[in-house]
Amino acid sequence: MAPLIEHIALPLEDPILKFLLILVIILAAPLLLNKLKIPYLLGLIIAGAVIGPHGFNLVLRDSSIILSGTAGLLYIMFTSGLELDMTDFRKNSWRSLVFGLYTFSVPLVFGILAGRYLLGFGLYSSILLAGLFASQTLIAYPIVSKLGISRDRAVTIAVGGTVITDTLALLLLTVIVGVATGSIDDAFWYRLTASVIACIAVIMLLFPRIARWFFKRCSDNVSQYIFVLVMVFLGAVLARFAGLEPIIGAFLAGLALNQLIPRTSPLMNRIEFVGNAIFIPFFLIGVGMLIDYRAFFRDWESLKVAAAMILLITAAKFVAAYLTQKTFRLSKDQRTVIFGLSSAHVAATLAAVMVGYNIITGHTPDGEPIRLLNESVLNGTILMILATCIVSTFATQRGAHNIAAKGDQSQPEQMGTGEHVLVPVSHAENIDELVGLGIAVTKQKHRSLYALNAIDNRIDDPEVQKRSQKLLDKAVTAAAAANIHMHSLQRYDVNIVNAIVGIVRERNITDLVLGMHREANASTTGQPDEGGLLGTNSMLSAGGVPALGKTIPDVLTQCNVTTFIYRAVQPLATVQRHIVLVPRKAELEAGFQTWMLRIRHLAHDTGAKIVFHGMEQTVEQLRRKRRRSDIAAYITHGANESWEELLAAQIDALQPDDCLWVIMSRRDRISYQPGMGRTAGSLEERVRQNNYIMIYPVQAGETESRYI
Asked: Is 670 left (phi over 0), alpha (psi -120 to 50) or beta?
């Protein structure tokens, strides 16, 4: 019993008990706080204050808590950069710049005036206090992420503005400290400018190249996640070397990897899961441990400073949000979100106040040190952190809930028109790519995914059934890794064509994703070919290369749905350009809008560029249907060029990390072109190092059982 009592002595020193206590808090907080209507983030901060050294002293804020909390803060900044809509971010970059200047300059003025005339500080101390006012922490970002509005314009503006104001505030800190300590020389500005530019250039230019190389060569889930963590902390270290705060480097790392980690990818799901489960809660609990409620009663000076800081900071951040709303004509809810995201002060504020507190500019006649920021400001900052976190959490939750609710109501017609995607699977090697494409081209709120494996009903072999179930399980697992449910369908039929056609009709399938074969030999196990859907009677190209086989043409003649025939060489997330070859009169087909939206949705999710190639009239229709956020180019070709010439030209012009999309047509339909029957063979023979996808859109008229 004695050893047990020693372990339970307070504060807890046993790492197992400490970790257990924190996990219990993370687990119990949502259950208790939902009943009390207290936001989850605020609850974790309060819990940290209760168990911390200024509360019941159950856990000390030691190196383990600081390490986990630092990782959580970097994680918040990294995910905020990772989840940004890069197209909207580029489009709204000047808005973020304006907001960043608002949310820096307004608090700066308030802080200097308060320091000089309200609190009686010196000039340097007042400027440093103003830097505390200007800095901010995206502590409430998990709220907007959870509610699915992280790509709202207000969030994009707030996140971009946070990076700008924190950078300016921390640069101001560097300058003031240098002036106060007399360490600024003639080369100071050159060193600072060069280091900042070098840091940004390395992260934004080199990180994407390294990540693309790694993701193309490593598909192991654990290795990919560890690689992401390495990039986060490497970016933080580079920022520190450049004289910036690590949070700036973590955010830039998120921007650098943004296009390589789509929101619907399994890797993104793992990043969000681990962050929300471990890193971010540890950070919030660690923030709570800093809060000393006794500072309210310690002395009137601390209380006076804290009250002034809380009121002026809140007012300044609201003024900045109000000016941003009026400048860009945002809604009141968007203003509330901007105010909520920008009003919390934790990381940069703590860094600045600790630096100012530790700088001694002189001594009193009694030998007491004169600090750049005195103890009253330090205590007031701790109270200000608690108050601004409360304001930030409640404001962000209110505004984000209203925006999310209005977003759901604004698209009532879409809720009833779901996207039902069928992925027939027959070979384990290409299941991840096929499922990934089915997820990437559809909208998360309206999709249903189905995996199908067909078994010849004339075969009674338990091994065949086991193999079939393993393939379905792998498909379900691939979807689950992206936090998406997939239905598995095992069907006995005379052949796979009948099975696919039956499921398409029964489940009201809108999109069919088929895998291009890899081998020419038919399977002898009663299943379709090893590569996907190649039948025993292969159609050959002129060079003797197997093309679509027999199964795919039979499916196309009997299933008039948007059909993707996909051959993957590299992950979709690593593709930089999508080259789309569109036949003449494609705009007249019934499925024109559908396939166009599918491609644009995928490119928008990954941030890749789209290049459309087609005839003038077709390209004009594509331009008319474009969205403002599209990163698209349009290239017009002459009417005298044949389909095969156009295809050959695009194949020859392919660059590394390009994906070729070929819009096809069933025979005798409006957009059918002579030579389309040889397209599959040409692609199989000539496109070896790039992904390619053939799309057969929905077309008017009844399907016919004839060869494509």
From this structure: alpha
State the chain's mean pLDDT as an integer. Answer: 81
- Please report, in angstroms and rounded to a whole number, the separation of the first and last CA atoms in the chain: 80
Give Cα separations from 673 to 101, 660, 677 (angstroms): 56, 18, 9
Nearest to 403 by CA among 447, 345, 341: 341
44-80: pLDDT as tens digits: 878 888 888 888 888 888 778 888 888 888 888 788 7
**Residue 514 DSSP code:** E
Residue 375: C-alpha distances to residues 307, 381, 396 (Å): 15, 10, 31
User: Distance between CA atoms of 380 and 593, rounded to whole angstroms?
Assistant: 58
Element spanning 451, H or E: strand 447-456
433: left (phi over 0), alpha (psi -120 to 50) or beta: alpha
8 A C-beta contact, residue 75 and residue 314: no
Omega within 30 of 0 (cis) for the link into 11: yes
β partners of residue 580:
612, 661
Q: Residue 35, class by beta-carbon neighbours within 10 Å (0-12 exposed, 13-18 middle, 19+ buried)?
A: exposed
Q: What is the pLDDT of residues 432-456, one digit of tens each?
A: 899 999 988 887 666 789 999 988 8
What's the rounded Cα separation, in Å, for the pair 298 and 295?
5
